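Bug #2210: token dump truncated for Mitoferrin-1?
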Amino acid sequence: MLQRPTFSAANVTRVLKLWRTPVSDSPHMEVTAEGVAVPLEMSPVPEEDGLNSDGDYESLPAHVSVVNHMTAGAVAGILEHTVMYPVDSVKTRMQSLQPDPNAQYRGVYQALKKMVQTEGVFRPLRGLNITMIGAGPAHALYFACYERVKRSLSDVIQSGGNSHLANGVAGSVATVLHDAVMNPAEVIKQRMQMYNSPYRGLWDCVQTITRAEGVGAFYRSYSTQLTMNIPFQAVHFITYELMQEQLNPHRHYHPGSHIVSGAAAGAVSAAITTPLDVCKTLLNTQENVALSSMNISGHLTGMANAFRTVYRLGGLAGFFKGIQARVIYQMPSTAIAWSVYEFFKYFLSKQ
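Reproduced locally. Full output below:
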């Protein structure tokens, strides 16, 4: 049997004490006037500014320093160029308009195999040192400029939203800075990559070019490189952002989506701009056999002259020499660059 409650003085005092208990002293329960305890409705804890439970980090870069963007960009750029460098060496040789009979290749794998067998295991890596020296600062400026310009233009064009126009313009502006640093490194790299390259090493290459052709030789292909890289980067960034909208609409840190988006962006932009890359390679290497066959004395200069030379020696097909190697090189390279950059941006932002 249930016992009837007793209303002693002690019990009454205890009930009145509970009734007067402030809610702030009891964080999980509330006592009503009848002495009944009921649970409090808990309001959600406000999320930290710029970070939610899904790990959304895309809003964080607004508060991240330029140094962080430059650090992430430098690491991404160095890895992008070094991991796939042997394929880049093959691409340079396959773009030769009149290659030596010993440097004619049917495909990327066969080219790498032949280079290792006939010229040594480290031959595909020749010129890697200058590439690393140039890639670090070039990509640091590149990504830092891209992030800053993209954010500024997006605020104007689409009130802070994602604007494809802003992405394309930001990529193009960033390319001007990138190529100003990277162009001399590209000249030295491609001269050292060519078959029967006469240079003993990096410093010998720099000295020989400076004495024979002047300092201007390091920027002979700059206008062509910009003409190639501005549309390349515009297509690259627009494709990447479009892929991100489909694969990662909430813009969380998602390595898989960064890799796939980067690979797709690299493949599309590389294929479209291959004709300009062939012209750039000709201006950088000043291929002696090709120039002699065209009765060109001195040095080939200018994008228009490069276009005419490529067409006369190779026809329309000449503009797509090395396209397979270029796409194979760019797909993993841009996938590596974006995944590493997004990771470091996320990691540095967390710190």
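Output looks complete on our side. The first strand starts at residue 29 and ends at 31. Marking as cannot-reproduce; reopen if the truncation happens again.
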